[in-house]
Design a protein that fits this description.
The structure is a homodimer. By secondary structure, chain A is an alpha/beta fold. In chain A, about 40% of the residues lie in helices and about 10% in strands. The first copy, chain A, has 14 helices and 12 strands. In chain A, strands 1-2-6-5-4-3-7-8-9 form a 9-stranded mixed sheet, with helices on both faces. In chain A, strands 10-12-11 form a 3-stranded antiparallel sheet. In chain A, α1 packs parallel to α3, α2 crosses α3 and α5 packs parallel to α6. The relative contact order of chain A is 0.12.
Chain lengths: ~375, ~375
């Protein structure tokens, strides 16, 4: 089973520019896409960064990743067996392309081919019960036999059980840090076992030490790679619930395994079930929902919608001031901002991009923004 | 909270006739209602029984309960503190009136008043887990505090836990046998504790020893009394699932408590959840569904629809033969029978009543019938 293979390939020079742009200050996946769309490529976007930051009112110039630094990362990656796959290349996971903020570059170790196979995520508590781990192994094996690659986060507990039971059929571990910072450290061996039939991926640079707050960002990749996410055990406020919420936002299926109301490790999953997640007691429950989706074609836009619009000119200072004056620490929607500013959406987007590169803008969910 | 108090009262003589009719051979709750509707009362129905059985082709005359036998049952009931409440009397449980086949007479011990309060059933495995029993106690207490009478079947396990935790707020135990045959025997003491604030009811005569096959009949009363049924623990093929099915047929809410897929005692409840039962982890989940229903008026038909039709004449022998010839051991629908026989629905109903009294008819669910 393959989900899609079309796409172009970057030249070495383009890959270097992409890497420089995504490693530059205040450039995240969403800003990366807007910049490339606005300027028609990573190179002109890199050239525009200093001026954008200045116009956005940066207190100090935004740091642009130097060419040499990007070359060093590419070399080091190559030495460690990490391929940098660009958004739009044939090896890039097809479902991940469709999320709002796909990483422009994915660092991949292991077997590239699994990334274009249909995937399902299995996640849950780090302090899993023996029953939870056993159930995870059973369902991971069954989903693997059914042709699905099992995705998880290499964490202790449910994640580890999911990877272990799908080593033969293929499993993908998504890291919250760089490829040289495996967490937890005792899973180095598990990781080595994953590589022959699966892969380990991250969007973070080599040298990046994972922090707790990197997990939600990582979790969006776990759900974004997958047709659906199965939550096995999850306490009331648990990281797995964040993965579930991201799956919903990305339009992916959410499955939850029920548990006793007296078991705190089932509070999160029972809560998801009350909210409409599909109840899972066996792999067949997951397959019944995912197989029909798998049959559906999912067409990717050939071109980003924004790319069809003429590149915006530089906003007038007075117009920029009017837009910035409407912003404050309270999140507002971009739609409201366009309406209240009486500027064109293209101008508003440009001003927001300037603010973002200048490190003055915070983006929240649902198209909400605020000034930092 | 009271659900309804309107209604008439039977005279002693009428109660005796009702008791004789329902204790007569081949007369169940549904036939009872049809007979009373057809003949305008229990007395004329009793008078018609022998002739009906003869016309239905009974091999031997159907046994009509003699007046003396009914008098003895009434006396014995009175001595044991069992009141016989008739369908339509003010003390008759209002929700139970609305099921397809409400018992014409309910034998009630304890406090009559609880039967017109809003009720919720709590049922589950006899071999309950400690966690299941604990959860049952918690939710029973909470539902009791919220003003609901807790209904269950006096069985071991979940049922007993439900009764015990609602002794103070009021609980109703429904028996599968007569009031002098408590099952299991070790629950005699629990039963005595129920009586001060609750009641114990059955439709079966004194002296009736409960058999396994009486349980589904009893379970229809458990669900029929209640606005909803909560299934706490239930294995794959368990009596509690029959109660759940009956609740659905009666238009009552079905709730299920989730459990681990590895726990066989949760197979039934997880299955119910997959079929759309409401997931329960706390009493609030039940109250959120039941309270709005409680607010709704539920009007009872003032008169049974059949009673408005003119009493049928005796079918011609040729017509009866044509109808009987269409029947066999394979269940068919009454609608099909009417269509195929080209007789009027009233005539077909009368012939079926004759066959039923003669002990030659079996009624299945969904309006299906077959010849014995």
């Amino acid at each position: 089973m393959k989900e899609g293979t079309e796409g172009f390939r970057l030249t070495d020079e383009q890959r270097l520019d992409w890497l420089r742009l995504i490693r530059s200050e205040n450039v995240g996946p969403r800003t990366f896409r807007m910049l490339v769309n606005h300027y028609g490529g990573a190179r002109p976007a890199l050239d525009a960064l200093p001026e954008l930051a200045r116009r956005g009112g940066a207190l100090k110039p935004a740091r642009v990743c130097p060419r040499e630094e990007a070359e060093r990362e590419l070399d080091a990656s190559r030495r460690q067996g990490v391929a940098l796959i660009a958004l739009g290349e044939p090896d890039y996971p097809p479902r991940l392309r469709m999320i709002d903020d796909p990483p422009p570059l994915l660092g991949v170790r292991g077997k590239l081919g699994v990334l274009i196979s249909p995937m399902v995520a299995l996640v849950g508590s780090r302090n899993a019960s023996a029953a939870g781990a056993k159930f995870t192994e059973r369902i991971a094996r069954e989903l693997g036999s059914a042709g699905f690659i099992v995705v998880s986060g290499l964490a202790r507990g449910i994640d580890a059980a999911a990877h272990r039971a799908s080593l033969a059929s293929g499993t993908v571990a998504v890291l919250a840090g760089g490829h040289d910072h495996i967490y937890p450290p005792e899973h180095e061996n598990l990781l080595k076992e994953i590589l022959p039939n699966g892969s380990v991926i991250t969007e973070m640079p080599l040298g990046w030490e994972p922090r707790g707050r990197d997990c939600p960002r990582r979790n969006r990749l776990i759900s974004g790679l997958s047709l659906g996410v199965v939550i096995v055990e999850a306490a009331r406020r648990s990281g797995s619930l964040i993965t579930a919420r991201m799956a919903l936002e990305q339009g992916r299926e959410v499955f939850a395994v029920p548990g006793s109301p007296l078991d705190p490790r089932a509070e999160g999953t029972n809560g998801l079930l009350k909210q409409g997640a599909t109840l899972v007691t066996e792999a067949a429950d997951v397959l019944a929902v995912l197989r029909p989706i798998l049959g559906q074609r999912f067409d990717l836009p050939v071109e980003e919608p924004e790319a069809r619009q003429p590149p915006p000119g530089e906003p007038e200072a007075s117009e920029r001031n009017r837009i910035v004056a409407l912003l404050g620490p309270t999140p507002v929607s971009i739609d409201d901002l366009v309406r209240l500013s009486q500027s064109s959406p293209a101008i508003v987007r440009t001003v927001l991009l300037e603010l973002e590169i200048a490190g003055r803008l915070e983006r929240h969910g649902g198209g909400l923004i605020s000034l930092l």
